[in-house]
Amino acid sequence: MQALLGIDLGTTGIKAALFATDDGSVLADAFCEYPLYHPHPGWAEQDPAEWWQATLAAIRACLSRGEGQGVQPADVQGVGLSGQMHGVVLLDERQQVLRPCIIWADQRSEEQCRWITERVGASQLIEYVSNPALTGFSAPKLLWVRDNEPEVFARARTMLLPKDYIRYRLTGEMAQEISDAAGTCLLAVKHGVWSQEGLKALDLDPALLPPVVPADTASGRITAEVASLTGLATGTPVAGGGADNACGAVGNGVVAPGLALVSIGTSGIVLAHSEKPQVDTSGPIPRVHTFNHAVPHTWYLMGVTQGAGLSLRWVRDNIGLPERALERWTGIDAYEILAREAEGVPAGSDGLIFLPYMQGERTPHLDPYARGGWIGLTASHDRRHLVRSVLEGVAFSLKDCLSIIRAQGLQIDQMRATGGGAKSPLWQQIIADVLDTELVLTNASEGPAFGAALLAGVASGVYRSVAEACAQTVHVTQRTAPRPEVAASYAQAYETYQALYPALKPIISKK
């Protein structure tokens, strides 16, 4: 039996999964957690050494379970990597990690964003890299290290993104994959190469950045040392892989015009495939990102909701305490219990609106200091309303993203959903109603890991192209249609939602 191994380096842990090459079915999987550190408010860091140990453990566990299904290590035709975007891993001249990785969620670099914009010029920056300088991106984080830890920066010889660091450990090869590199604010997205003009303007040495490689070609092979640590066969090809959202799109077949992806993980995204590098012109600064896709010579537009699943997790951990206890005793998922309660509340949560800005916001506000909250709370509301309003508030934020993308002229015929939040039938229906668009699920239960595996399949010659890989393995399993009467009600509630941020900004968006 031929198989492909997909590895997804997430924020909470790493997933390794084996997939059959003929139909994409899951043969085995394993998940290993690692910590997230917050040394100061607004900071978010992780230790690459903990990623690496979790990667080894997840691969070993996955291969062991695969052998129980008749899959031998030699049957693995290729390895693909997906990972959280924007993190900065700095290596010294001996390729040793110099400091914890500043990850995507970190908000400390606002001063560096302002400096970049002033130094380069707002419009010139868009011309160079197709995106504004945001605290989530890599370049401001790198400059923060230069400004605040000069002794560390002076020793830095290489900057890698999280999943590209794992590929280096697997293969010994230094490279930055294109869809991930697009999120650094250092890549000339229209051309797929590092922006020499941008690097010069920021006084950054181009030698810090390894070569850019495609997502669907082999960029290294499993070393003998890693083979002994994991059980993989020496020489197994490792694909360039992709950023988590790009791989999620591939894993759900969003590789052609007219298709878009809604992903609800810790953050939430709306991603639309584009045949050209189209930049948001709806305002003075682009409010959705333009990135290179994992599909060669294509791009995508993406809006980001910082606090999607994060908001519901906060409710679970701080308000859903009885459910957490019940989950520990019975194994019944606390999210499922909360969703059942929320089903008893009418659409619109009886006027209660939630702003999901618990960790700042990207689309549409580009405001790292935005703050969340419930608006319209009355004595008649109870916890059920709080839960449902969170589901609706996240959906409203996703509609912000979709509205801007559509305003660029992209026709979207179908939305495909992925991520942990997409497993909730109630949340599926709310999103379909709020977006007033059919929402479909596919067989890609492992999301980014599956997309990474398909890219490995192309890199190893199992499939001739990404499109062929998706056509052979991805199919729709469920459809959720919007309900016209509910969609109309949500359209009115959305108008109120849109009015709240500008009205409350002087209060809720402060340093």
Describe the protein.
The chain has a 7-stranded mixed sheet with strand order 18-19-17-16-22-23-24, with helices on both faces. The longest helix is centred in the C-terminal third of the chain and has 25 residues. It has 511 residues and is an alpha+beta fold. Helix 2 crosses helix 3, helix 11 packs antiparallel against helix 14 and helix 15 packs across helix 18. Helices cover 40% and strands 20% of the residues. The model has no long low-confidence stretch (mean pLDDT 94). The chain has 2 domains: 285 residues, Nucleotidyltransferase, domain 5; 161 residues, ATPase, nucleotide binding domain (Nucleotidyltransferase, domain 5), CATH 3.30.420.
Which structural category do the helix and sheet elements fall into?
Answer: alpha+beta
Radius of gyration from the CA trace? 22 Å
Q: Work out the number of β strands.
A: 24
CATH architecture of the largest domain: 2-Layer Sandwich
Q: Compute the average pLDDT.
A: 94
- What do we call the CATH topology of the largest domain? Nucleotidyltransferase, domain 5
**Count of all domains:** 2
CATH class of the largest domain: Alpha Beta
The CATH homologous superfamily of the largest domain: ATPase, nucleotide binding domain
Strand content: 15-25%
Shape: globular
Output the strand order for the largest sheet.
18-19-17-16-22-23-24
Distance between the termini: 56 Å
